[in-house]
Each structure stands twice: as C-alpha cells, then as structure tokens.
Amino acid sequence: MSLKMQAVAGTALLVAGMLSLAWAYNYGGGADPGPLDRAGLAVTWGLPAAKLLCNLASAGTIGTLMLAAFALPRGGAAYFEALRWAGWSAAVWAAGACIHTSASFLFMANRSPAAGFDEAFLTFLIGIDAGRSGTLTILIATAVAISCSRLRGPRMLALTTVTAFAGLLPLVMTSHAAGSTDHADSTTALFVHSATAAVWLGGLLALMVLRPVLPPGQLGATVRRYSTLALVCFIALAVSGYMGALATISTIEAVFSPYGAIVLAKAGVLIILGVFGAFHRRWSINRLELAPERGGRLFAALAVAELAVMGIASGMAAALARTEPPPAATSGEPGPVLPEPGLWEYLSGWAPDPVWSLVCGFAVVIYLSGIRRLHTTGRSWPLHRTLLWLAGVAVLFIVTNGGVHAYQGYLFNAHVLTQMMLTAIVPLLLVPAAPLTLATLTVIARTDGSAGAKEFLERTVQPVLAALRRDPFPAVPLLAASLFAIYYTPLLDWAATGQIGYSAMSLLALVTGCLATAALTGNQDPGTGGAPGRRLPVVAGIAGLYAFCGWRLMEQAPSMELPWSTSAGRPWGQSPAAAAELAGPAMWSIAALMLGILTVMIIFRRESGPGDPRAGAANSHARSLREDVAA
Length: 631
Known about the structure:
Number of strands: 0
Order of helices and strands: HHHHHHHHHHHHHHHHHHHHHHHHHH
Distance between the termini: 43 Å
Largest sheet: none
Helix content: over 70%
Radius of gyration: 26 Å
C-alpha cells in the first residue's frame, strides 16, 4: 500500500506539473516559434520541460536534506533512506541541468539537435553567462550526489545542505530578474522564493518516500517538525513572491499581460497550499498522533492532493522562466531619481529587501513567542530586554530596508554607514536582550536523536560565546578580519553591485558585531579567568583598530568608491554629503558612540561584580528560571 501511494504521489506531481507547464507555456507565448526558428519543437518544449525537471529534482534534494538535518533521528533507517533519496534526486538534478544547458545552447545558436555540438558549445559553456551557470549547476548537483553517498556526521550533512542551496544560485542569477528595473532586489527575492519552495515541496515528497520506513509513532513527530518548516516557507514564499512581482509588474497593463496572469494564478495556488497547510496543522497531525495507522493513511491522501497542487505551481514557474515579462520591466528606463542625500533622506527613504524583511519579521515573532511560552510556566521576562530586542530589530530593519539601503548602492560613505550600524549599533541593542538565554529557557530539548534549535545552539553558538566570554581578546582580530573582508576583498565589489553580495556583507558585519559585543558585555563566572577588568584593554584595542581603519578609508575612499556603478554621475551632482571621504568620520563617530556605551557597561558590571548583592540576585533569578522551566 505504501509503495502504491508513493507511485500515486509521484505521478500526481509529474502529471500536474506537465499539464500546468503546457497551459502556461502556450498562454504566455513561449511555445510560439519565431519566423526564423530552426531549433524545432524538441528544443522549444525541451527547455521548459528540463527546467521543470531541475526544479522538482532540486526540491527533492534540498527538501530531503533539510528534513534529515532538522526532523529525523540520526542513524536510523529513515535517516539513511533520506540520504539515499537525496543522492538520487541530486543525480536527476544534474542530468536535468545537462539537458537544460544543451537545450539552451541549441536555442541561442538557433540550431536543431540534429546539427550536433561543436567547439561553439564549449565556448558557450565557459564564455557565456547562460552556459557558465548551467555548468556550475551541473558540478554542484554532481558534488551533492556524491556527498550524499558518503555522509556520516552532522557537519558534513550541514555542508552538503548549504552546497545544495548554493546550486540554485547560478540559474537564479541568469533569470528574468536580471532584466527588471531593480536587478539586485528581484534576484534575491527569486532566490528566497526558489529555496523555500524547494524545502516545502521536497520535504513533503520526502515524507511520502520515507513513510514506509518511519515507525507509526515517529511519523507524527516528523510531520509536525516538517509542518514548522512548511509554515516558515509559506510566509517566505508569500513575501518574496510579492516583492519579486513588484520588480516585474509595475502597471495595471502588466497585471493583465500573460506574464501577470500566470503570476496571479501562482498566487492563487499559493493560497490553496496555505489551506492545505492549515488542514495539516489542525487536523492531519493530531490524527497522526492519536491514531497513527489510520492517521497515516489520511495524511498520505492529503499529501498526494497537496503534491498535485505543488506540481501545478512548479509547472507555471518553469513556464514563467520562458515567458516574456511585461515591457515596463525590460525597457531599461532608469528608476526614480534619488534626492540629494541627507539625514531626512536616510530616515525617510524606502528600499525593501526581501531577505532582511523576513529576518526582522521572524526575529520579532520568535522572540515574542518565547516570552509567551515562558509566561505559560508562570515566569516573567524583563520588560527592558523585550524593548531592547524590538528596538534592535527596528534599527536593523531601517538600515537594511530604509534610506541607508537606498543610497548604499550609490555612495561609499553610505556603505560604511551600513557596515558600522550593523557592527556597532544594532548589536548594542540585540545582545543585551539575551535571545540565547530566552531560547535556553523555552526551547524544548529533543530526546530521539534528532537536532532541533536547542541542539544547534548548544553545538555551535554557545561554545563560541563561552570561549569569547572567558577570553574577550579574540574580539579584536575577529573585528579586524571582518573589516578586511568587507573593504579589501571582492566582497566590496559584490556588495556594491548585487543584493546577494550586500546580504553577505550585512550578515558578516552583524554576526561579528554581535560576537564582539557579547564578549564584552556578557556575564562571566569569576572562576573562568574572564574577570571584567580584562575587557577594558579589549575596548582600547578595538578603538585603535577603528581609528586606523577610519584613517585608511579617508585616504583610499575615492579609489575604493569605483565599484559603485553610479559614483561618477550622480543625479544630484557634486554634493558635499556624497563625498567618499566622509566614510572615515562616519566610522569614527559610530565607533566612539559604541565604545563609550560599552565602557560604561563594563565599568557598571565591574562595580556590581560577583561580590555585589545585585549580581548575586540576578544570577539567582536566572538559575531559578532555568530550574523551573526544566521541571
């Protein structure tokens, strides 16, 4: 019965995807051959069909790896079956990428498959963006397939999962996002959209594959964990899809174009999938846990229907990649002219970023959910920590979505302002809010051998923080390495010209800033050798580091500003506020503010050290919280 349901699920996914692809491809005009077309129907239809195959196979790979990393106990039969399924999916992904790359060459060269491949094909693979992206996708998918056959430990699984996600980037970078009016933001939105869709679809497909080897009692827990991933994916899909649509559909006429109609149809399918998700969370999972055998059959029937709807969405997505966007999205006309930069423009500007919008939204919801869970145990959480967290997320949102983000693509000094706000100011608000303490108190540890949020924090973040709090001196070289990577490596160019590079730079700045701030402000036990007095020399070292880096930026800023594509011809002319040399004073000012606050915090903690009754009361309260939650 299980094998039959697996076959039905796979058939429903493929048939629905192909029928949806046929409708959307014809409706969008992609199937219409040009007057001088020599490639033929095989290439015309082979391109979207291969794209659909790549989408489904990459989803099978990524979703299964995520399920293995997040939901399955390590070492069991289901775990190893998941790795085998992910490896086979990656092999199919590589084969689909080969077909897609070959068809892309034939389409661009306007030749039929009978004409064969010659040295022009090699040139295409290494010299043309579409060919290079296809080659890179093939290599990544092949590497993932090989890795899945040799996976043993959790670190290798994590590395393989990250590599699989990276395999989505090449084709995303050469999609229609490159032709929109805001290439950077739409490219990032498309990557988030593709990645979350892969986790959602691939995870559900993996559950159907693994159902025969999952014990009835374990199936319910696995589905519940997958449901959490699916909820996150649904929200991310909705936000990224909306932002991506805004980049290509900006007028009423564009909405009613074939491209716009397919996008609206996809939005309708997403709503239907949201309804399926609600059924799973409120009905299917409860029945699985109360009556595993009967609930498993009901879950399988609902999953087959949901996979069919996902196939419809996948078919439309594959056709959309070959559908001409509305003329307004590809006209090449410049966007609205930014006003002359100033404080008001930085505060009132708006340049939404899908990645950081989602990060900020999830950060608020997860933190408040933790407080709510803590309150259910009869315990309270300090109000000032909640306010600090909300303020920190608000500043993070403004920096990554507001006027500073809008000018970051034009001005080098805005780039430095972004980096310093993320490194120095935002961590001063987020770290004292103690999110890891809240997680320790509220996240339930797993007992079945799988790894959840608590296990991830205990194995990765907490050991690093413990080491830094025992010895805060590594904070100085950590910040130095971050500044070097941001200003003296290709990351500077990537952050100037693309949203993916900007997101990488922002993440590096935020993480290193949080680690340094935690090293200087975190509580320390007197027996660990991390006395508060050792932190003041670290503050002095950081001050010297920022003084030297700011001086170097003042000298080198004009030449370092060259990656910013519009630096030579700004619409507001030679405004003093746009001078690249302002990068140095901006770094000094923000660093002085940060270091002053840190010094006050360190001195205050030193005065209320281990011997102070206030410190003892605080530590006792924290221990009491942990003991009560554990009980």
